[in-house]
Amino acid sequence: MAPESLGQIFLAAVLANNFVLAMFLGLCPFLGVSARLDTAFPMGVATTFVMLVASLCAFGLNLLLTMFQLEFLRLISYIVVIASAVQLVEMFLKKTSPALFRALGIYLPLITTNCAVLGVALFQTAREYSFAQAMVFSFGGGSGFTLALVLMASVRERLQLSNVPGVVQGTALSLMLAGLLSMAFMGFAGLGG
Amino acid sequence: MSDLSRAQTFDEFMEGIWRQNPVFVMVLGMCPTLAVTVSAMNALSMGLATAFVLVCSCGLVSLMRNIVPKEVRIATYIVIIATFVTVVDYVIQAVSLAVYDALGAFIQLIVVNCIILGRAEAHASKNPPITAMVNALGMSLGFVIGLLALGTVREVLGAGTLFGVSLFGANFQPWVVMVLPPGGFIVLGGWLLLFSALKRRKEARLAAQEGGHGA
């Protein structure tokens, strides 16, 4: 793997290879929580936090597993670490902001099954990122996820005011929207290498 | 097996294929659905890999449903699923390196496919192994059908081929955006649109019939 500068990694993760719109990771929360702006943003921040924690743990775990030549346990150990990180965020939110906790509802524990989080851990392992690179990558990925979620939520809030034919309403409309957003993000291709 | 229970088993099987199709009705497991369906072949191998994991883990979850304490059930399910995914990961690597490279990280990401955890929690944890596995088989078939529906359309439009066989000859100008990420969203949106239009027509017809009876 060619050495990449930290800025390149960050830009690529946020824009060119946006987790949601270019790599199709984390679509469930993207379609599920993006109806309103005031839940979309906190959801993005919570996911980013989990990603950072997961990436940190995954980095250490990977070192440990490679040392003992237990690579086949990688997937299982990653997923257990992510599940515990989500539990942590859940307890923290419940204590500090019960209203937000209720608004996010079922989607909070579902961060565990958010492919974006596991994706960060797997990609950083596959690309053999160093510690700093891995941290920047996961932060960029999280920011990209938040950006996509916020964009989508803003568009959907505006859509509620317009007159959409009944047959298109619901998931079909969201997917078409996502397609358009994704096309816009293709304009960033090549940015950040 | 009596007629009734056979009919029930058949119902369990069909539920996943049609009424609760994971892709088109429940809109679950979107990430692999959209990411790997650039060609029909990829779609099929992904579908089969997911099917194996789904059926095996539902069977095992169902066998263990009376042993596992309620508090740690989700963690147990995830570990079970991750085990089978690791198996699939190594098997695909051994069988076909080309497929493995094409699917990339998405094989390991089967772990976080919402369909599997959803089935384990909603169905397998409450039903005996045979029922759970039949239901899982139906669900996987539904998933494979959904993946193929997307994969074929995207491959035909985006590359002019089907399973790698050229369809239109040299003059075909491929619609490249279909095999790029936006195409995935748009094709799936199109399918959902079609189904919702069909559903509305059926409802309108039913309403018209009832109106006719009333008059």
Provide structural commentary.
The complex is a heterodimer of chains A (193) and B (215). Chain A is mainly alpha-helical and 193 residues long. Chain A has one domain. Helices cover 70% and strands 0% of the residues of chain A. Chain A is globular. Chain B has one domain. Helix content of chain B is 70%, strand content 2%. Chain B has a two-stranded antiparallel ribbon with strand order 1-2. The chains are: A mainly alpha (193), B mainly alpha (215). The interface between A and B is large, with 43 and 41 residues.
Provide keyphrases for this structure.
heterodimer; A: 193 residues; B: 215 residues; mainly alpha; two-stranded antiparallel sheet
SSE layout and pairings?
The complex is a heterodimer of chains A (193) and B (215).
Chain A: H1 6-16, H2 27-32, H3 37-67, H4 74-96, H5 98-104, H6 115-126, H7 131-159, H8 171-186
Helix pairs in contact in A: 1-7, 3-4, 3-6, 3-7, 4-5, 4-6, 6-7, 7-8
Chain B: H1 3-17, H2 30-36, H3 40-63, H4 73-95, H5 97-103, H6 114-122, H7 129-159, E1 161-162, E2 165-166, H8 181-214
Antiparallel strand pairs in B: 1-2
Work out the strand percent of chain A. under 5%
SSE order of chain A, one letter for each helix or strand: HHHHHHHH
Mean of all residue-level pLDDT scores of chain A: 82
Distance between the termini of chain B: 46 Å
Biggest chain contact:
A-B, 43 and 41 residues
Q: Averaging pLDDT over every residue of chain B, what do you get? A: 82
Ends apart, CA distance between termini of chain A: 13 Å
Helix fraction of chain B?
A: 55-70%
**Which structural category do the helix and sheet elements of chain B fall into?**
mainly alpha
Strand content of chain B: under 5%
Main sheet summary of chain B = 2 strands, antiparallel
Write down the oligomeric state.
heterodimer
- Bulk shape of chain A: globular
Please identify the structural class of chain A as seen in this structure: mainly alpha
Dominant shape of chain B: flat
In the sheet with the most strands of chain B, the strands line up as 1-2
